[in-house]
Amino acid sequence: MPLPYSPRFAYYDGKIQPSSSTSSFTTIDPATSQPLANIHTSTSHAVDAAISSASKAFPAWSSTPAIERARILQKAAAILRSRNDSLAKIETHDTGKPFSETSTVDIVTGADVLEYFANYVGGGGMNGETIQLRPDAWVYSTKNAVGVCAGIGAWNYPIQIALWKSAPCLAAGNTMVYKPSEFTPLHSTLLAEIYAEAGVPPGVFNVVQGGGEVGAYLTQHPSIAKVSFTGQVSTGQKVAASAAGGMKYVTMELGGKSACIILPDADIEQAVDGAMMANFFSTGQVCTNGTRVFIPSTLQSAFEKRLVEKMQYIRAGNVFDPATNFGPLVSKPHWEKVTQYIQHGINVDRAELLYGGASPPPWLASHPDQTYKNGYWVQPTIFTNCTDTMTIVREEIFGPVMAILPYTTVPEAISRANNTSMGLAAGVFTSNLNLAHKVIAQLEAGITWVNSWGESPAEMSVGGWKMSGVGVENGKRGLEAWTRNKSTLVEMGGVVGTVFAKL
Ligand code: NAD
């Protein structure tokens, strides 16, 4: 039986390259475990060819005026928006995320970032600075493209991650070889075709397919000048170490175990909404998830009562039903990992199970589409009265598993929130804005929210502290990561400070 989607290959020299592989694997629909498409793993020869294509395209693209690059990228953003629903459908099949989410978030936030960087470089974002040093001397600096860059994506926001990397990369005049996650590769060549349709020249955006081996070959390649990686901390360590050998620029967007702190004067309704967004959106597969929910002991019972009441608003099921807001996990290995963590929480950590658990969701047995029984579904799960030493509190689960941690004083909550090697995100819920800012200032995290959770607009620079990453994406600072600086001192009054003058 033919698969729903055509095979995916590498893409370079401005076209799909069917002869770029000798082996293939199948990508799976997580809602049903049905195969979606054959993906052809790029050979090392194909990766070399993609890098060579990007190297050939670099001189012309980097010297194209920024305003012209901007015009082309703006057109690509418009094409993305015009195909929102068809691209969202593909993302829903590939990731299992409900269409209600992919059609309103994934393509939209990717196109926003593309438009943001196009407008930014078109409006002078690549300008350097001029410093009048003395009347007869000045310094000027230029921002320059870095060269051929590698983009390596994770599976939770496939096309959004591809756009968050390629938008500033291309806007700054670089070229890219992008490798999607092997679990969610469907968007990759479609994005390459959209760029081409908008007028991006051949070789500026290229795609290779495959898993860690292909990623490792790409990132260690001597012709790669910068690596932008999104994924687990353990993989990021390997990628950064290999990039260090070639002294390559790196951006590392890694995992987290973020703290969501409900302060004593918080509005309970808002705190519950925030904690739910911080744990169950995208079935908990969001890097910035606030999985450690710190609650004052005095508010614990009111908070938990309302939380359990509101869990009924989580609606799993047909991922294309507009009412569905909770999908399956992305893959079988990830389903096994998350289920094991829930079992560990119950049996080894002995945390108190407030909601959900490791057994299959009860609705699955009566679901009209029997193929759903083969999907990677879990129950949204809440543990309470957790302690900081529990495994489910210390390690990133990357699934819909909330840990509630009661506390007594605000300084205690801050100190416990910071007691982790990771520092991606954090947030507070409170009616006291003075206290909010005081607490935020003490939290060791690169992305923070007050009375909200998860929004990450194009203008906001985001990146982790500690083991959660290096550098930022988005916002003005996000462009700097794709440029290198040249400073030039110009002297009109003779060589300053020379010691070689006649005495
Ligand atoms: P992963 O580390 O398993 O894989 C990420 C990518 O790296 C994949 O494309 C994979 O093929 C590739 N890869 C694997 N080994 C490699 C190697 N040795 N060299 C080069 N590439 C290699 O991560 P994942 O499971 O796909 O994604 C989930 C993780 O991503 C979570 O930890 C999550 O927190 C993190 N994440 C972080 C952000 C952020 O912005 N900070 C955003 C999304 C996801």
Automatic annotation (TrEMBL):
Catalytic residue list: 253
Record protein name field: aldehyde dehydrogenase (NAD(+))
Alphabetical list of NCBIfam families matching this protein: PRK13252.1
Keywords per UniProt: Metal-binding, NAD, Oxidoreductase
GO MF term list: aldehyde dehydrogenase (NAD+) activity; metal ion binding
Domain of life: Eukaryota
InterPro entries with a match to the protein in the record: Ald_DH/histidinol_DH (IPR016161), Ald_DH_C (IPR016163), Ald_DH_CS_CYS (IPR016160), Ald_DH_CS_GLU (IPR029510), Ald_DH_N (IPR016162), Aldehyde_DH_dom (IPR015590)
PROSITE patterns, sorted: ALDEHYDE_DEHYDR_CYS (PS00070), ALDEHYDE_DEHYDR_GLU (PS00687)
Ranges where the Aldehyde dehydrogenase domain occurs: 20-487
Organism: Amniculicola lignicola CBS 123094
Reaction equation(s) it catalyzes: an aldehyde + NAD(+) + H2O = a carboxylate + NADH + 2 H(+)
Family recorded in the similarity comment: Belongs to the aldehyde dehydrogenase family.
Pfam families listed in its UniProt record: Aldedh
EC number: 1.2.1.3
Keyword Metal-binding: yes
